[in-house]
Write a structure and sequence with these properties.
Strand order of the largest sheet: 12-13-14-17-16-15
């Protein structure tokens, strides 16, 4: 389970970490005064060498990190935020699919609260990236904050304002008023290697300036978080990071910032030695844009892309080692739609650069400035062609998620009585009807066939398919009946393919793809 370390919501009833508290009720903050931190100001220069040096540890580095910590600690701050949390109208009954009205919900606000919801306190970390008060942190630390306060290394507390935040990379910039603050710089040239020493500094559990050390455990970790999957390949580190470390810096042994702590993998909520940091190569460009413009503008063409497994490409008649991205959806009226992009095209390059998968294709498109022309090389019906698309501006991530067309979702419901249809590869399916749409809360824009039965000991059963799921498409053909499914399977077998690719809508409104291999016994 992936955990972010942003808040300990002490004021929200029922949260597991309420008693852990933030620094809010424990530390008495002194009055804020703008000025240097403990007499230190200006850019904190690396302790040895210059930018671009290899990661060769100086003599004695494994014995102590005290000198490095003393050098960089003045730039690290604690962050405390206040947010509004809406109380849910319904409360889930544990262990059941049922819910009951919340007596303290929107219609019954407890005494001491207003109709805007309860106040929640959160704690995080950040660090100065300029002498005039700009501070880098995580988006999830300051998102929806109504008040932001920071505590400097010398104990002073100051109010901060939000400059800008970027959901796509989970980065944000805040600012305090003043000058001559000590700051640190992102290191882009000397790339860390697996096994290099790192030091994480931050505010775990609201305790304040804490240093932990470890090594880089892995590079380019993808899909750590759904929201950042398209734009961030994380550094994995084993320096202990916990709740409240979010937004804090990861340093190399020269005191250079190589990452921004963002997430942990944990089944307990605490550190188990698997932490993730946003690389400096990404954080530097994003924070610079936020400082200048308050936002990050990315190219946008309006395509939904998917990376397929080797089995998936094989089901579509491509080599198992095929490199590219499948166009799964085209937003109506978006730049790609106007340029002629189609569902089931395969993107193989962007502006002449080959793409490995959908993540790389999305990042290359996102690097374009709004108004620039993007050249997508696609394979359509076995032939290569180039689409010239004038890039738009990518909407915020929450708007994109809101427009995904998903329904309310829920658990897979019991299917209706199975219709008398001949199974296809162990699957019995029926067309969607108004009654079935109502029963399964399916929007009008969802089309396909409903699975009513899955035969035991078949590839479909081993794949995990179950009654109640909707198959929207198989290979490149939209599904409307069992005959459609039967025809696609027959065509694939005639072409000598070992499987077909199923596009399935989940009860939660998401979409998954799965290669359905043919039963050798049939």
């Amino acid at each position: 389970m992936m955990k972010r370390k942003e808040f300990m919501l002490g004021a929200v009833a029922g949260l597991a970490f309420a008693a852990a508290a933030t620094a809010g009720g424990v530390i008495d903050w002194p009055t804020a005064e703008a000025g240097p931190v403990a007499g230190v100001s200006g850019r904190l220069a690396p302790s040895a060498g210059g930018a671009g040096l290899a990661f060769a540890p100086p003599q004695g580095a494994p014995l102590s990190f005290a000198d490095i910590f003393q050098q960089v600690a003045p730039a690290v701050v604690q962050i405390e935020v206040k947010t509004r949390v809406q109380r849910p109208n319904m409360l889930q009954i544990p262990g059941t699919p049922f819910a009951i009205p919340n007596p303290n919900g929107a219609e019954g606000v407890p005494e001491g609260e207003d109709d805007e919801g309860a106040t929640a306190l959160g704690a995080g970390s950040g660090f100065f990236i300029s002498a005039d008060g700009f501070i880098a942190t995580n988006n999830h630390v300051v998102a929806d904050a109504t008040e932001i306060r920071v505590k400097l290394a010398d104990g002073r507390e100051m109010e901060a304002r939000l400059v800008g935040r970027d959901q796509a990379t989970d980065l944000a910039v805040i600012k305090v008023e003043g000058a001559d603050f000590p700051f640190v710089s992102f290191e882009e040239q000397a790339q860390p290697r697996v096994g290099d020493w790192v030091i994480a500094v931050g505010n775990p559990f609201g305790l304040g300036g804490t240093a932990t050390a470890g090594i880089v455990s892995a590079l380019a970790r993808q899909n750590v978080d759904d929201q950042t999957a398209q734009y961030v390949d994380f550094l994995q580190i084993d320096a202990a990071i916990n709740r409240g470390n979010s937004g804090g810096p990861t340093f190399d042994i020269y005191g250079r910032v190589i990452g921004v702590n963002s997430a942990i993998y944990s089944q307990t909520g605490g550190s188990v030695g698997i932490g993730f940091a946003i690389p400096a190569s990404i954080a530097k460009g994003v924070t610079e844009q936020l400082m200048r413009n308050g936002r990050v503008e990315r190219g946008y063409v309006g395509l939904g892309l998917r990376t397929l497994s080797p089995d998936g490409w094989e089901a579509l008649g491509q080599p198992r080692d095929f490199k590219g991205a499948l166009i799964e959806s085209v937003t109506e009226g978006a730049p790609a739609d106007r340029a002629g992009a189609r569902v089931d095209d395969y993107i193989v390059s962007v502006d002449g650069k080959p793409v490995e998968d959908s993540t790389e294709a999305s990042r290359l498109v996102g690097q374009a400035r709004p108004g620039e022309t993007i050249r997508l090389e696609v394979i359509r019906d076995g032939r290569r062609q180039t689409l010239s698309i004038r890039s738009g501006t990518r909407p915020p991530e929450d708007e994109l998620l809101a427009d995904d067309g998903s329904g309310s979702g829920g658990a897979v419901q019991p299917p209706p009585p199975a219709a008398q249809v001949e199974p296809v590869e162990g699957l019995s399916v029926v067309p969607l009807t108004p009654a079935l749409r109502s029963r399964y809360d399916l929007p009008d824009n969802v089309n396909g066939v409903l699975i009513t039965n899955v035969a035991r000991s078949t590839p479909a059963a081993r794949l995990g398919l179950q009654a109640g799921l909707v198959i929207t498409r198989v290979n490149t053909r939209n599904m409307t009946s069992a005959a459609d499914l039967r025809a696609v399977v027959a065509a694939a077998k005639q072409a000598g393919r070992p499987s077909v690719l199923l596009f399935i809508r989940t009860p939660q409104g998401g979409n998954v793809v799965a290669p359905l291999k043919f039963d050798d016994g049939e």
